[in-house]
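Justification of resources, computational component.

The compute hours requested in this renewal are based largely on the per-chain cost of generating structure records like the one below. Each record pairs the submitted sequence with a full structure-token output. That output is archived, and it is also reused by downstream analysis tasks.
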Amino acid sequence: MQQIYTYGTYLKDKFGAKVYKVGINISGFTCPNIDGTVARGGCTFCENDSFSASTDEVKELKSFHLNLESKKNPYLDKQLKQLELQFDAISKRQAKEYGAEKFLVYFQSFTNTYAPFETLKALYDKALSFDNVIGLSIGTRSDSITEETLSYLSELNKEKEIWIEFGIQSVYDETLERINRGHDSQNVKEWILKSKDAGLNVCGHLIFGLPDETQEMMLETSKEAYEWGIDSVKYHPLYVVKKTALANEYMRGEFTPITEEQYLDVLVKSILMKPKNVSVQRITAGIDDDSLLAPQWCRNKNIQVKHINEALKEVGLKY
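The structure output for this chain reads:
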């Protein structure tokens, strides 16, 4: 059996230590697809309530959101403190429970380049100042990053490990319009290529099971994403959660979620297409609480991975 090249393997080979991503949620960040800059309501599968601050120390940030045009940020000190507290708590737990030795600070929630450059610089620099941090991974959208930010990340990359994560989702504009994405596929391609030209490491997120997409369309998205030169990939099945536009479509019978059999089939085919140098960061996704409407097979990730490995075994692979 051949082991799929995982992101953990990549990091272990490069740094000779157990490197863990520390997921960070900075209040005050939002998305141009929610605040009305490019669209309203967010992607149809996105629960907008998740874009509200929730931690006690930054309750006042609930009504404060940054964007690329923000002239000032009166809450920067609170955001820096929030970053420090989250990193300290999570990294200590990862070291204790998993033996983590080094860390990659992962700006995970929201759109993490969608703020004034000085705010971003302060947060990125602060994250890189923590003990045993070897770099950053920054989740964002291709319509929410500036040349100035990209140039700065390129400079940081000369000394640290800098990753940028883009939601590709689909290369079909009709799909992106259907899910209210707010930009087209060409925009994603453009900024992935720019990021690669700047020397950055790029992770692409792919969603299988988007409305009205055939397996051929899903595989074409994988093929093009690989051709754009992504260094790593996250695969997601589309699942339906409450308080989303997609949930309304599902309840009206206008959307049928991907079955587990369909997901396993397209996932295995996509992995077989993948260049060997592209690492896999995520092979599925789901949620195990009462917000999940469908499909129910997305509820238990352990069972999902078990079934994925059974499917991979048939082609001589394991995850």
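The two ends are 10 Å apart (CA to CA). Residues 2-318 form a domain with the TIM Barrel fold (CATH 3.20.20).
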